[in-house]
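ARCHIVE CARD
CATEGORY: sequence design from structure
SOURCE FIELD: tokenized fold
FIELD CONTENT:
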């Protein structure tokens, strides 16, 4: 009976030790995953910031191009309108 108790005590001790090792490894893995998560969040924020900056630059370029092309179109329309102005016919001979 004493041998059974001793064996049970040894088994319980071993089981506790393995559980503690398992807990330690899981905590270590948790910390590693938290660090990786922080790094990924930081990268995401940086990429979102870069995407916003790129979008703003594209918007400025589009507005500049749109403004330039509308100015060109207005000049073209003005020139075209001037070409279509009807002048009275020029007659020769004193009329």
């Amino acid at each position: 009976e004493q041998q059974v108790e001793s064996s049970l005590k040894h088994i319980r001790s071993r089981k506790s030790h393995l559980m503690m090792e398992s807990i330690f490894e899981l905590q270590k893995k948790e910390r590693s995953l938290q660090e990786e998560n922080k790094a990924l969040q930081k990268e995401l924020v940086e990429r979102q910031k870069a995407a916003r900056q790129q979008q703003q630059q594209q918007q400025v370029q589009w507005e500049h191009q749109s403004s330039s092309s509308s100015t060109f179109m207005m000049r073209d329309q003005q020139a075209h309108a001037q070409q279509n102005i009807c002048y009275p016919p020029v007659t020769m001979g004193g009329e």
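CARD ANNOTATION: The two ends are 144 Å apart (CA to CA). Residues 1-78 form one domain.
SHELF: design records, drawer C
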